[in-house]
Structures are given as C-alpha cells and as structure tokens.
Write a structure and sequence with these properties.
Structural class: mainly beta
Shape: globular
Number of strands: 30
Oligomer: single chain
Number of domains: 2
Radius of gyration: 20 Å
Strand content: 35-45%
Number of helices: 3
Largest sheet: 8 strands, antiparallel
Helix content: under 10%
Length: 356
C-alpha cells in the first residue's frame, strides 16, 4: 500500500532551470520563458522512491493548473488521495491562451506553460510525460476535457493513442484502460484520482538550427479541479528515438517482431531494460533475450495475475489470443487493442500495439 509522502517540488526554479532539467543529450537550450502562476510549476526530485509510477522519471518538471505542491500530501498514512476533487484556483494562470483554446475547441483556463528555443543535433526529438488529474473519472467525455499541449515549431505534437491528444477524454479507464492508472482506492502516492502511464511525444525538428518548443497544461471548460503535466528529466533529446510498433493480425495469425528494429540511437547500442515497467535482470543482445527475476509480475498489465518465470525474448510472437515468449506463454485477453511498453537505457518508452 502506498504511503502519503510529499514529493519534493521546488517551485522557486526559473524557466531556464526547468528547461535545462527536461532537456538531455543532443540539445542546446538557448532561451526559456514561463507563463503561469508562480506556484503552478517547478522541478521535482526523488520521484522513483517517493511517488513511483505517478512520475515519468526520478527527476523532472511539473506544470499544474493549480498549486503544484498539491500533487501529493504529507499525511504519512495510507490515505494518499484525501480529496476526490482537489482544486486550487491558480490566480496567476493564463486564461484564454490562443493555442490552448484551439486545442480544446473551447475555452481554456489556468494554463501553465514553458516556451523554449533550442538547437538540436538530430532531426527528431522526444518528450516523456505523465498526465494526471482530478477530472478522472467523473468528467471523462465531458466539456471539462483538461489537456496537455506540446507545440514544436508551432505545430501541435500528438501521441499515437486515440485522437492524438494528451487529454482526459482521450486517455482514461475506458478505451485505454491498460495505459491508465486509477487511484480512487489510494493505490498510488498522489492526490490525483487518475493518471496515465509514461507516454512519449515524438516530433520532427531542424538539426543545427534554432527551433521552438511550447509545453504546458490547461483546464478546459472551467477553472476547477487540478490537472498536472509531469515531464521526465532529460527526456527531451534527439539521440535516442524509440518508435511505436504496430502489428495488425487476423485469427490464428502469428507475427514475429523485433522491438528494436525501427529504433535509432546516436548515443550507443540500444538494449531492453524494462518490460512493461518490470526491470530486466540481465540482457543478452547476442540472442535478443532478456531475463526477469523469478515470479515477477508485469505491473499495470490487464492480466496482473499472470507471472513471468523464465527467459523471455525481445522478439515477440503475437497470435490472436496469446503473447508467446521464450519458455513462457502469457495468455492475454485481447480486446480492441492491447499495448505493452519497453524502455531503453531509461530513455524513451515505446509501445507495442497489437490490433485484431
């Protein structure tokens, strides 16, 4: 059971501090400005120990539509989610920002965002994040569709889920239940009622030239209920690009996939370090196999009751009803889609999407 412990958040950091925190290898930050309430942003630390799963990395930046420090409480009990509707009016938040209004197709409130100019060495960048909110689950598919916005050189970046938006109504416990965590029963150390798994924006950039990035979060429809945008430290970079894999198959089809086959790195060889959040114990690139600790569960998987017990391979054999791995067969109740996540050297996550 999670224990209510306050996530260390420094709301006194500058825009340049926050930009340097989220930018990683292959990038030079030139300028940075912040718009929003003084208490609605900051750098966080010790995420892996204090608030695992709810933070996309051990350190990073939090942008909030209210008070960033309300993300967790310091009660010390197992009552991590004390209020079903945490809501602090961010008096310095930006109402009616043109970009967020266009994204929301309506009125936006309490927006908090960074605007950064940077020079990359590569032609593509990534950004790893978690969306968390008190709008879950009551206001899914309503006008209160709080949303994250990421614009690269003025163009909206999207996620490869649903309609592409990182919003309450697009990513939730409905169609995307296996990339969403419900916190109504205090399962995780956060005041938020729900949050996504770590997801990734990928966008093209112009190498060797000055590019622009705008990242932020806004309330939609009204200024009530907190929503947060947590960005992993060092995840905005251009040296390792992990792309999603999609497999389309019919009944009784079997497909072999090399999960690293469409990824690129200028920072060294890629290896699989985690399988759906479960750390790899050893890795053997020579035969594309990985090992998990004995009887380790697959966290956040729709079939958590099933366990991995032996050698697994990073080449996956997908059939209509089974995910077959070396020495192990994991039966998965495929619905419209099933998604599994891989991370590489602690850098970008990628998703395997199997469609029937």
């Amino acid at each position: 059971m999670a224990t209510a412990t306050e996530l260390p958040i420094n709301t006194g950091t500058t825009a340049l501090d926050m930009a340097n925190e989220i930018f990683g290898s292959g990038m030079d930050v030139n300028t940075a400005t912040y718009s929003g309430d003084a208490d609605s942003s900051g750098t966080y630390s010790n995420g892996d120990a204090v608030s695992p799963f709810t933070t996309p990395g051990d350190t990073g930046v939090i942008l909030s539509t209210s008070n960033a420090n309300d993300f967790t409480n310091s009660d010390g009990s197992t009552n991590t989610n004390q209020s079903g509707g945490t809501s602090t009016n961010a008096t310095g938040g930006i109402d009616g920002d043109a970009d967020f209004n266009a994204l929301a197709i309506g009125s936006s409130f309490d927006a908090t965002f960074l605007e950064i100019t940077f020079t990359p060495t590569g032609d593509t960048i990534t950004l790893d994040f978690v969306l968390s909110s008190e709008e879950y689950p009551d206001f899914v598919n309503t006008q209160y569709n709080d949303v994250i916005g990421v614009w690269v050189n003025g163009t909206l970046a999207t996620v490869s889920v649903g309609d592409g938006t990182a919003s309450i109504s697009n990513i939730n416990s409905g169609e995307t239940q296996n990339i969403f965590n419900n916190n109504l029963a205090d399962q995780f150390n956060t005041e938020m009622d729900g949050f996504t798994v770590t997801l990734t924006f990928v966008a093209p950039v112009t190498p060797g030239a000055i590019n622009t990035l705008k990242v932020g979060v806004a309330d939609v429809g009204d200024s009530g209920y907190d929503t947060n945008f947590l960005i992993a430290g060092g995840s905005v970079h251009s040296t390792v690009i992990a792309k999603d894999d999609t497999i389309i198959f019919g009944k009784n089809d079997t497909i072999i996939l090399d999960v690293l086959g469409n990824d690129s790195s200028t920072g060294g060889a890629l290896t699989v370090t985690h399988l759906h959040g479960q750390a790899v114990v050893t890795s053997d690139p020579s035969n594309n196999s990985i090992t998990l600790a004995k009887d380790k569960r697959l966290p956040s998987c729709p079939t958590e009751r099933l366990k991995f017990r032996a050698m697994l391979t990073s080449r996956l054999s997908i059939s209509t009803t089974q995910l077959k791995m070396r020495h192990t067969i994991l039966t998965v109740p495929w619905s419209k889609s099933s998604k599994f996540y891989f991370s590489f050297q602690g850098l970008p996550l990628k998703r395997l999407m199997a469609l029937s």
